[in-house]
Write a structure and sequence with these properties.
- With 174 residues, this protein is mainly alpha-helical.
- The protein is 50% helix and 0% strand.
- It contains five helices and no strands.
């Protein structure tokens, strides 16, 4: 899943110092936000899940088997590890990601809004756990991907007709 061979995300690469999975998921969500918003929302949902697990582990909270994200977020909030505003953003990401998963929904504008929420959460995480002076900077809008029609078929290997294998089926007697 690691998109490390791709261009690093200006919005999420800084998270790699704390948790590479967060950088990877943010980058993937960013990549899909325009062309496949449903997938972007799913990646953002995974971002929230990974963040909650990271915070729980870092905060010394026990990971109970089968614990759901809603319970994990509530536990982090009660333990004082998740401020109300971050909890609200993660809850919105969770709910929207669940809807995208179960109802196959997702619009580019909605995905872009949640991508910005994840970026805000990432800045909070860096300032809280890494460097209180970490610069917020500005959110960088994802650039559109290449136009698929620009791919040249001449670069693909020549297709050959598919040969059918000889059928050596034995007839079963009934």
């Amino acid at each position: 899943m690691t998109p490390s061979a791709q261009v690093p995300s200006p919005n999420f690469e800084h998270l790699r110092v704390l948790e590479p999975l967060l950088a990877d998921l943010g980058t993937l969500a960013e990549r899909y936000v325009r062309d496949d918003p449903n997938t972007a929302l799913l990646k953002l949902r995974q971002f929230g899940e990974a963040l909650a697990r990271f915070l729980a582990a870092r905060g010394g909270l026990p990971e109970s088997q089968g614990s759901e994200q809603v319970e994990r977020l509530a536990t982090l909030r009660r333990a004082g590890l998740l401020p109300d505003n971050v909890w609200q953003l993660l809850t919105t990401i969770r709910r929207t990601g669940n809807q995208a998963n179960h109802q196959f929904t997702g619009e580019a504008e909605e995905a872009l809004t949640l991508l910005q929420y994840a970026w805000i959460i990432g800045i909070w995480l860096m300032q809280t756990l890494h460097d209180p002076q970490f610069p917020r900077g500005e959110f960088v809008l994802p650039q559109p991907g290449p136009d698929p029609s620009s791919f040249r078929p001449c670069c693909l290997p020549q297709s050959r007709p598919v040969r059918r294998p000889k059928q050596n089926w034995r007839r079963c007697k009934r």
